[in-house]
């Protein structure tokens, strides 16, 4: 009679260890994936901040050549402020789109001022801004890949059970607004 009881206890102990090990391992994987998403978001935030820091210098350089373009400078500054005050992924994406449109209009001004295009400060700032735009694109792609891996993991069975037990929720992708995909129109006939 002792043998079946001991065997049953050993089997139950092994099952308990396996279940606990699975929960423990899955939880740690989810934490690692969640932290990876946070890290990738941080990189987007860093690059958006870098761009926001470059913009005032670019605006001031262009202002010297195109003083009558006040409306465009105001729209760039307003869009920059929105980006800096945005908190959520959706707010950052929307304000980023608005800033992209305003910057497109600002850089289009440079085309009408040959002396500005030849200015060393303008060229350096433009190059830095272009490099930052590339970094933002890469950071957004890395972030969205991390979100995809995380969301896939928490929605997969049996991980979804553990994810729900510990409150892991789907993360939001960094998406651009459809309106941001249209090329800004610049009218110099005014």
From TrEMBL:
SUPFAM superfamilies: LemA-like (SSF140478). The keyword Protein transport does not apply. PANTHER family: MEMBRANE PROTEIN (PTHR34478:SF2), PROTEIN LEMA (PTHR34478). It is a single-pass membrane protein. Its main location: membrane. InterPro entries: LemA-like_dom_sf (IPR023353), MamQ_LemA (IPR007156). Keywords: Membrane, Transmembrane, Transmembrane helix. It comes from Thermoanaerobacter wiegelii Rt8.B1. It comes from the Bacteria. GO terms for cellular component: membrane. This is LemA family protein. It holds the Pfam family LemA. It is found in: Membrane. The keyword Disulfide bond does not apply. Belongs to the LemA family.
């Amino acid at each position: 009679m002792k043998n079946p009881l001991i065997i049953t206890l050993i089997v139950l102990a092994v099952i308990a260890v396996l279940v606990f090990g699975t929960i423990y391992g899955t939880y740690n994987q989810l934490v690692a994936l969640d932290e990876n998403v946070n890290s990738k978001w941080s990189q987007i935030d860093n690059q958006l901040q870098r761009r926001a820091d470059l913009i005032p210098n670019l605006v001031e350089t262009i202002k010297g050549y195109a003083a009558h373009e006040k409306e465009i400078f105001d729209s760039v500054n307003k869009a920059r402020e929105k980006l800096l005050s945005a908190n959520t992924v959706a707010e950052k994406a929307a304000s980023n789109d608005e800033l992209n449109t305003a910057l497109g209009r600002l850089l289009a001004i440079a085309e009408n001022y040959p002396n500005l295009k030849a200015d060393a400060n303008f060229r350096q700032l433009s190059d830095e801004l272009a490099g930052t735009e590339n970094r933002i694109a890469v950071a957004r792609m890395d972030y969205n890949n991390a979100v995809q891996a995380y969301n896939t993991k928490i929605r997969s069975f049996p991980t979804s059970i553990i994810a729900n037990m510990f409150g892991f929720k789907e993360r939001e992708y960094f998406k651009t607004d459809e309106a941001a995909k249209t090329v800004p129109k610049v009218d110099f006939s005014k």
